[in-house]
Specification:
Length: 317
């Protein structure tokens, strides 16, 4: 298991390259939720998403340890940007396998960081096959989007900052911290650092109904596939790994699913009331809070706003 010291070292390693993002509240949303919500705004992070943290922590170590002369990964967007950005920092070429259906804004951003985009069909099998081909052709080192302890440790630093800034010392600790779940890297890291720094705080995940594999895996104890994949939350379509599932089952209290209309409503609420841009995947935890008010009434709640890389030409409202 990743120790507190490993997560602290990850934070020290990436600190020169990232923002310590601000935390916002909104009275209208608090009133609607019946709770006190604190939004950790990773939509203002480098590359527009929390994924910069895990990507940097992994790539910086690959470079430091001379593990390879290039980097590769597969991603629908934000991890792709994170790895491309991190590879540029250390001067290594990056080869990113992306589904052809990934938002154009994310593909353009990856290319803008100097990485090569290899498009594939929008399935996990096609993504993994693409990465294997890249590794065979270039000798690149894989930085997996979530099945990698170095990535998980980096992702944990978002909740670490949230707890340090608003849930320790003179501050009342959070009752609950929520994060979305796709492959489980952020959720795993969030659960671990919360256990270390604020052990009385629950960690709960939000998941789209249209990519509901994590809730099935959480219940069965083995990695499951979603019954169907159809959701606006394009960043949450991946299944868990054995690594992330083990951490989630040990340290996460519950996983709550929400529909696409509920995701869109939460996304729009943040745009309208907080005046900030978030992407659909980012809105899933807030949608879960609004859907289950009785579970969160009167609580102090932290929510990781994971990113703001939305295609402005294809808004769902």
């Amino acid at each position: 298991m990743l120790s507190l010291e490993i997560i602290r070292e990850a934070h020290d390693r990436i600190r020169p390259y990232i923002h310590r993002t601000l935390v916002l509240t909104n009275q209208t949303i608090n009133d609607r939720a019946g709770a006190e919500l604190y939004f950790k705004c990773e939509n203002f992070q480098k590359i527009g998403a929390f994924k910069a943290r895990g990507g940097l922590n992994a790539v910086l170590q690959v470079a430091q340890n001379h593990e390879g002369t290039a980097i590769t990964t597969h991603s629908s967007g934000n991890h792709a940007q994170a790895v491309a950005f991190a590879a540029r920092q250390v001067g290594l070429p990056a080869y990113i396998v992306m589904p052809r259906t990934a938002p154009q804004v994310k593909k353009d951003a990856v290319r803008g960081y100097g990485a090569e985009v290899i498009e594939c069909e929008p399935t996990l099998e096609a993504r993994e096959a693409g990465v294997r081909a890249v590794m065979a052709q270039t000798g690149a080192v894989l930085v997996h989007p979530f099945d990698d302890d170095r990535v998980i440790a980096g992702q944990a630093t978002a909740a670490k900052e949230l707890i340090e800034d608003f849930g320790q010392g003179d501050q009342q600790p959070f009752d609950t911290i929520l994060a979305p779940v796709g492959g489980g890297g952020l959720l795993s890291g969030t659960a671990l650092i919360t256990r270390y720094l604020s052990p009385t705080t629950r960690v709960i995940a939000g998941e789209p109904e249209g990519a509901a594999d994590a809730i099935l895996s959480f219940r069965s104890g083995q990695v499951e596939r979603a019954p169907y994949i159809q959701t606006i939350a394009d960043g949450l379509m991946t299944t868990l790994s054995e690594r992330t599932l083990a951490i989630i089952r040990a340290h996460v209290t519950d996983i709550l699913t929400v529909s696409d209309p509920e995701i869109i409503a939460a996304m729009r609420l943040v745009w309208e009331r907080m005046k900030i841009i978030i992407e659909p995947s980012c809105a899933v935890p807030l949608a879960a809070v609004l859907k289950h008010p009785d579970q969160f009434a009167g609580q102090k709640i932290g929510i990781i706003l994971t990113g703001g890389n939305v295609d402005l030409g294809k808004l769902p409202f």
